[in-house]
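Could you help me review a protein record that somebody else here produced? What it holds is a sequence and that sequence's fold in token form. I have pasted the whole thing underneath without changing anything:
=====
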Amino acid sequence: MLIERSMSDGFLTNTYLVAAASGGPGFLVDAGGPMEPLFAAADRESVDVTHLLLTHHHHDHVCELGAVKARCPGITVLAHPDEPVEAEAFAPLDVGGLSIDALHTPGHSAGMLNFTVEGHVFTGDTLFKNSVGGVRAPGSTSYADIRSSIMDGLMSLDHATEVHPGHTDPTTIGDEWEHNRFIRVWRGLDPEGDEPCTALGEPATLVLLGDDYDGGHKAWVRWADGRDDIVPGSQVERQG
């Protein structure tokens, strides 16, 4: 399988070109750019890009959609119907002999799709290397949703499955099962924290301050009413 990745300098967003082999049809996952390296790879490998699969609608994943349509005027754009983006509803398909399916993984957005392709999964903003997606972005749903999407959905995949996230470095399901700090607490291997903090200007309990894909932190907090949330670590003030 051919997988080419391009990562934007600003958002650190990944866009992927995927094909079974050179000289046949292929598809893109997301359109955050930069697109030129992927267009060049498609030309070099003689890949005819027929589909664009969108994990979700956020700007950093669709900002080069116009460039993709201009370069590939007949391309079919697919996404979940709950995502506010101009696209057809995704259904399982075959592109050049590659069978493509999707897990619906709400949390970071209501219609987030994670595309599974023969031992690989493209996780958008649901799961990252050593981190998880937040639930404070536009169109997000809930902590309960993203936890279920990861633990009941992604973690049910074979642990050898290669993970291609929406931002920065690749990983595997097995590596995240063993080492991702959020998943370790959800599995009951590590304890929850109980440190008082202020998050988004409100009193809360800091359950976990974990890593994030950009070198910063992602925080799991619990509000005074018992609700759990995942917020940017930069929005948490520790009291100790």
About this structure: The first strand starts at residue 2 and ends at 7. The helical segments are 36-44, 59-62, 65-71, 143-153, 173-179, 181-186. The chain has two domains: 2-190, 193-240. The radius of gyration is 18 Å.
